[in-house]
Amino acid sequence: MLESTENAEETEPAEDGPLPLIAYRVARNHLDITAAPIRREWMDATSERFVNRCLPLLIANQSGWWLINSETFVARWDGGDNVSSLHIEYEGVARHHEASSHFGYGILTWRVPVLIRTPPGWNLLVRGPANLPKDGAWPLEGVVETDWAVATFTMNWKITRPGADIEFRAGEPFAMIVPQRRGDLERFEPARAPMEAMPEESAYRSWTASRFDFLVGRELPGADPDAPQWQRDYMAGTGPGVGRFAEHQRRLRLREFAVEAPDPAAPPAAPSCGRPPVPHAEG
Fold first, then answer.
1. Cα–Cα distance for residue pair 238/40, rounded to 1 Å
2. Least-confidence region, from 217-226, 259-268, 272-281
3. Is the terminal CB of the chain with fewer CB neighbours within 10 Å at N or C?
């Protein structure tokens, strides 16, 4: 939520209670942050919206918060390494010029005008919006230790198609933030094992057999055209021989950031790394 530092508490949250995620506004420009939605236009545009049958995609769609681009612009990279090689042209009169060429090499950089605080021991994965491809540009990911750092971060996209006009519309997300607990990945002990050692071997064999029968049955002559066109076991949180999984999720319900009025006295945001800030004249 957005609040002043005077109201923030540095105490560690209860293990089973809500976890604070605070975006401190450090610049006069406003940043919209919203829980990532379940839908994607390209997924809905597929035949009978069949991609929406993939629950892992739908869960990934919602697994974080979107940072929203505020001003429409077109980025064009000439293929060079210099900062001036990336040309940015804003639509109309731009107020903040949040996106700029800062590093060179066709990298487009957003200055994020908030300093985000996570609970002690939690990092922030800053990545592109999940399952939302953009032709000609690729989001670069970073992990920030947002439980202590007093530097803001930037979001960067690598332009991959020199000479093309890559449009970023106002209202579309330019980043997705995902808290992750520091050290959890390093606790895993990866190992390989034969299928015979798997406790769920019989259930897996039952699933593969049912999957094979389902796929073959749809192609047989005289197959019922009204028969289900996809298996719903995983969507329902169940499977052959495994019953129903009690903690199965079909939808996430992330809390939204509370809204705070803008502070006209706040200074402009500045990049936290790389070269000194450059004028926005390249737009």
1. 26
2. 272-281
3. N
- The answer to whether the CB of 271 falls within 8 A of the CB of 277 is yes
70 touches 32 (CB < 8 A): yes
Q: Are strands 122-127 and 173-181 parallel, antiparallel or unpaired?
A: antiparallel
Residue 192 lies in a domain: no
Residue closest to 112 by CA, chosen among 155, 174, 167:
155
Q: Among candidates 73, 67, 98, 72, which has minimal Cα distance to 87?
A: 73
Domain membership flag for residue 191: no
Supply 113's token pair.
């005008």
Distance between first and last Cα of the chain: 32
pTM: 0.83
| Amino acid letter for position 92 | G
Query: Do residues 230 and 263 make contact, with C-beta atoms less than 8 angstroms apart?
Result: no
Quick one: 79 and 13 in the same domain? yes
Distances, alpha carbon 48 to alpha carbons 41, 70, 218, 229, 230, in Å: 13, 33, 17, 11, 12
Other C-beta atoms lying within 10 Å of the C-beta of residue 183: 9
Rounded distance, CA 47 to CA 202, Å?
35
Q: Which domain holds residue 31?
A: 5-183+251-282
Domain membership flag for residue 120: yes
pLDDT, tens digit, for every residue of 120-165?
999 999 999 999 999 999 999 999 999 999 999 999 999 999 999 9
- Domains in the chain, number: 2
Q: What is the pLDDT of residues 82-120, one digit of tens each?
A: 999 999 999 987 677 889 999 999 999 999 999 999 999
CB 200 within 8 A of CB 242: yes
Say yes or no: 236 and 255 in one domain.
no
The answer to whether residue 281 scores a pLDDT higher than 90 is no
